[in-house]
Specification:
Distance between the termini: 11 Å
Structural class: alpha/beta
Helix content: 40-55%
Number of domains: 1
Strand content: 15-25%
Radius of gyration: 13 Å
CATH architecture: 3-Layer(aba) Sandwich
CATH topology: Rossmann fold
Number of helices: 5
Length: about 130
């Protein structure tokens, strides 16, 4: 699945970032950027303007919900997908209220990434 998506992966776990990068490379994303916390993600969005952002919810320094709110102000067209192993309804509700595009349960599977990318491309809301 060839695409021109610029993707930011934000997670405090280097292992999860590496796994997600591998899946996104299999999906032929144009550019993959990594951030280890919400503050780094916000700076990265300012400089890179990614089309799609995978954002962990529970992180030190600045959590995913706080970062999401700031990112939507900086780059309203970026699609932010929240990822968490603690899939509480409260987190999910808060994320969607703050402008999250979707929510993925960890551990993230290649199928869920492929389905998500296909959905985004089909909607045609990003430059592909």
């Amino acid at each position: 699945m060839e695409n021109n998506l610029k993707v930011l992966v934000c997670d405090d776990s280097a292992l999860i970032r590496k796994k997600l990068r591998g899946m996104l490379e299999k999906c032929k994303c144009k550019e993959i950027i990594e951030a280890e916390n919400g503050n780094v993600a916000i700076e990265s969005v300012k400089h890179n303007q990614p089309d799609l952002i995978f954002m962990d919810i529970v992180m030190p320094d600045k959590d995913g919900i706080e970062a999401l709110t700031e990112i939507k102000e900086i780059s309203p067209t970026s699609k932010v997908v929240m990822a968490s192993s603690v899939g509480t309804k409260e987190h999910l509700k808060k994320a969607l209220e703050n402008g999250a595009y979707d929510f993925i349960q960890k551990p993230i599977s290649l199928d869920s990434i492929v389905n998500l990318l296909e959905k985004i491309i089909k909607e045609g809301k990003v430059n592909v």
